[in-house]
Structures are given as structure tokens and as C-alpha cells.
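User: Need the bound-state model for adenosine-5'-triphosphate:
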Amino acid sequence: MSSQNPTTFSFTKESLKKQFRWSEFLAEKIISGVAFLSIAIIFLIFIFVFKESLPLFSSSKTVEKTEIQVTSTTQPETYGAPTEDLEPETYGTPTEDLTAIDVVETNELEPETYGEAVEELTVGTEEETPKITETNKEGKNNTWSTFLSCEWFPVSENPRFGLIALLIGTLKVTIIAMLFAGPLGVLAALYTSTFASKRAKEIIKPVIELLAAFPSVVIGFFALMIMATFFQNLFGYETRLNAFVGGVAMALAAIPIIYTISEDALSAVPKTYTEASLALGASKWQTAFFVTLPAAIPGIFAAILLGIGRVFGETMIVLMATGNAALNSANPFESVRTFAATIGSEMAETVFGETHYSVLFFIGSLLFVFSFGLNALAEFYVKGKLIKKIQGK
Amino acid sequence: MKDIKIEVNKLSLYYGEKLALNEISMQIPRNKVTALIGPSGCGKSTFLRSINRMNDLIPDVKITGEMLVEGVNIYDKNVDVVNIRKKIGMVFQKSNPFPKSIYENIAYGPKINGIKDKKQLDEIVETSLRQAAIWDEVKDRLGDSAMGLSGGQQQRLCIARTLAVSPDIVLMDEPASALDPISTSKIEELVHQLKEQYTIIIVTHNMQQAARTSDYTAFFYLGELIEMDKTKSIFTKPSKKQTEDYITGRFG
Ligand SMILES: Nc1ncnc2c1ncn2[C@@H]1O[C@H](COP(=O)(O)OP(=O)(O)OP(=O)(O)O)[C@@H](O)[C@H]1O
Ligand SMILES: [Mg+2]
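Assistant: Bound-state model below.
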């Protein structure tokens, strides 16, 4: 610690003089520097994501999008026309990728008509240029007002960015996933921490945690190829890929998180509580449910919230397993499209500066705000109210 | 010693290979306080815990011999351990209230025994807290967390919690070891009152406490029961040299 030899140490003013331990000083600075850096990075990511959605908030940048609005006032939905030469004009983007996404969407959004409108379209696209400036303002307002609509048709003639539709999709998948993952994860944790023999625990814990290491694309693939067919045979519903399949697949991704954190929380409950309960003549189950579980509730609550966060932001699995059609229905066996999947599937197809592009970034910001809110909720609600409510004031 | 509540016959207990109790035989009288004394590590807690089968929780514990409570061997295969513990309550050395409210701590036992009526629960909570001489201190804050009580209050709360399930036998493992003299004397007084209704077995390191509170005293040494007799006899004319050495403090 210092150059002082303990045996010669004496209480003189000299020996008690403040010392500068510069290795400790350096270590402290480095550690706090790293901590600040990570905070700064998170902050910067948010700024960046939000910045890209900014054009939505100012009127000057919406020009490109509004042009399409003008032409399509009376027309039926006309995107995805399979004729190749038409497409680039309709969207104003000569990228080849567009064809890919169009085909996907046409398959799923059946009500939309396409193909027949070929001729009208050509007319429309020729006319659009002169009208841009006039409808500029209105177009921007339209973008905003479509946020609350229930239709997500970002690349149609009359683009609508119904975030509600995506919200419904996201919530549906999240709820379905949590209905499975929550009870399963927590109960599995309760089992391993209170009932399982040491041997069983040594097997179960690593196996469930291994699931966390699965790349989500593998889970998605499994859901797409096997679970979808299995559930369809089981329940006999129509749409093969739907919110239910996606939700169950997402549960697979969320279970390890919920399990691991709950298990830690449950194992941290002091043995003395268990003993006290058993000594009162409570059975093992009663002890587990009425003493151990409530004592671990803050940790379990945090586990659930983290699980929700995982489901919320998961992209690959939903992209592969939910069918990706932004329908509005409460039916769990219909296709859905989530926020994250929307960004994942459409980002590559948008053009920089387009409204669609900005909207995707806006969704990104929303996701960010959501997860921030979830964490804040976990932090403040758990530390404040919940503990008091369960453990007395 | 006519009215016998517990009869122990050649009870031995092993932690794995290690012998912790060696052929203990004794008789514990009904509605009396029996004190267990002896140097640290001699097996007092082990013996106490074997009376309500708390040792079942420890892996690799092996028990031979008989523990007859009201004539029934509690180590018999057909005996349900949960029911035993309902009848044989235990207060631990370190107070261990649940992280719940004071009310919930007491009501927990009755609730798991199927009592749902709020009025009845209120009544049990009040009686138990009164019995444990803590009612006046907590009656205005039953909804507060039990963790906010002082150590002495927590221990009395734990006693009340044990009484709330109305056991026959109350086992206490050094209930006052971490408490100040005032809390200690409260608990001793409590023990004295409780023996009207309960059979009490108490482990203590405090000779005065044993002398003050108990009717019978058993002296343990190295896993063996050296002798057991009326407390008065043990403290005035012990029959074994080891006992005398121990209680007069000339031990080891
Ligand atoms: N869980 C256990 N596993 C293995 N050995 C144990 C266990 N608990 C106690 N022992 C051993 O059994 C012997 C008796 O322990 P016990 O706790 O009954 O002593 P005690 O008389 O209560 O001591 P103290 O007065 O210090 O509480 C000791 O040698 C102890 O090391
Ligand atoms: Mg002990």
C-alpha cells in the first residue's frame, strides 16, 4: 500500500500525511471513463436514430413523398404491379430490391388490387412533377395523420403509415410470447431453485441457458419450418405464419432471460425464510409459492420486464414467423407485423430522405423510448412501490 | 416425571459419516420448560432440530433410534412431516421474520392451515401478539414491514408467529442470544407464562437463564446426554463431575 514499513509506522504528522496513490487514481479514472463512454454511446445512438426521423417534424423534406399522394387520390392501390418497367417510376427509386419486397407484400395484402391499374399509373406518374410544391404542406400533415390509422402501406400510391397497425401487431406478439414465457420461465426457475435435486439443477440450468445462446435466426427458422406446420395441423387455422407462431417462437427467446434472472432472484432468498415457513407446518409448495416467490418478486418483475424488452426488440424471429402482414384483428392466428420487423424488412428498401425512411427511424426511436420506459419502470416501480406493497411499509 | 410428552430412545444422528448425536435417551415432561445446555458444538441444536424433523432438510443426514411424541414415533415411515411441524413449532436462534408486514407474518401460519375468515385471522393475530408480549408495541403498525422492527421485537414476533398455529410443543434455539437484557427478560417471562399451555424445550448458553426459566435441564457433551434432572438438582447437586465443571464455569 505504501512505502511505510508496518513495524516502523508511527503516528507522526509525516507518516499520516495524505498520499497520492496514482495507480488507484488511474484505475478509477479508466473505469469511470468506460462507464461514461457506454452511456455516451447509448445516448448517441438514440440521437442518431431520432435525428433520422426528424424530417417528419419539419415540412421542407417531405417533397418526394407528397408527389405520389397527389396522383393517387382517386386511384385504387396500385403498387406491386408485376410489370418490371413500371415499378421504378411508381416509387421513384430505381433499385432492384424493390421488386423483392413488392412481391412479398402483394402476396400477403390481398385486399389491395394490383396488376389492373397499370395504365392509370403511367398517366399518374407523368403528371406528378408539377404538383409537388402545392401539396407539400398537406402531404406532411397526411403523414402524421396516417400514424393513427390502422393501415401500414408505406410504398403504395397513397402511403399510409398506420403505426397503430404495427402497435397492435407488436402487442399481440408480445402478449402471446409473455403468456408462454412468463409462467414457464418463472415456474422453471421456481422448480430448479426450490424443488429440484442438486443433480437435476445441474442439468436443467445449463440447458435452458443454452437456449439463450441460440442465434435468433435459428429459432426463427425452426418456427418457420416446423412449429408453423405443427400448430397449423393442431389448430387448423388458415394463415400458416401468424402472431401465435411468432409469439411462441419469441417465447423460446425470452424464456432463458426470464429463467436466468428469476432463478438468481429466487436462489438469493435466504434459507432462513424457507426454514421458518417449513417449521410452521407449511408444505414445500406452500413455502415456495407464499414465501420464496413473494420474497423474490422484485427480481422476477425485473426478469419479466427484460423478457418483454427482448420480445419487443426481437427482429429476426418475428420477421420469419409472423407473416408480416399489418392486419388489424385481435385474432392471434392472423398474420401481424411488428415495429422491429418493419424496420428490419423495409430499411434496406427505402430511399434516404424519404418519408418512409424517416418513419422507420421514428419507429426506431419509439422502440428506444419503450425499452427505456420499461427499464425505468423496473427500476422505480420495483424499488419504490412494489417492494413496499409486498413486504409491508 | 409422570406426564411424559416426548420420549427419546437411543436416538443417534449422523451428518454423513460424522456422528453428531450418540444414542440419546431421555423423557421430556408435558407443560414444563426443559433447558438444553452444553458447550458449543455438543449437538444441542442438532437434537432440537431432530424433534420437529428440521434435519430432514439437510442432505446426508442419517437418524436411528426412536423419537416418540405422545407415543408416536415421528420418524416412522407413515408419519407426515408437515403435520409434525404444525404441532411442534420452532423459534430460531437468529430471528427470521418473513419480508412481509407484521400482520402477514402472524397470519401466514393460520392461512396455510386453511383459515380464511378475516375476523378469525384478526383475532389470532392479536392473541398471538399479546401472548408474545409485543402487542402494545406493534398494534398501531400491523401493516408495516416486520423487517423494520428491532432485533428483540423481531424475535418476539417470531415467537408469536410460532404460537399462531397453536402447536403443542415449542422448540427454542437460543432465542435470546442476540438480545439486550430487557428483551431477554421479556422473553424469559414469556417462556414462563407459555408453559401453562405448551411444552417448551429451550437451548441456552446462559446458565442463569436456564436456572431461571426451566423446570428440567439436560446437559449435553460431545453428542452425548450426560445427565438430565430437575433444574434445581442439576444446579445444586449435579451427579456427574462434567456437569458440575460446566455449570460452575470450570470447563475445558
Ligand atoms: N449441517 C451440518 N453438516 C455437518 N455437520 C454439522 C451440521 N450442523 C452441525 N454439524 C456438526 O454437528 C455438531 C453439533 O452441532 P450443533 O449445531 O448441534 O451444536 P450446538 O450444540 O448447537 O452448538 P452451538 O451451541 O454452538 O450452537 C457440530 O460438531 C457441528 O459441526
Ligand atoms: Mg446451536
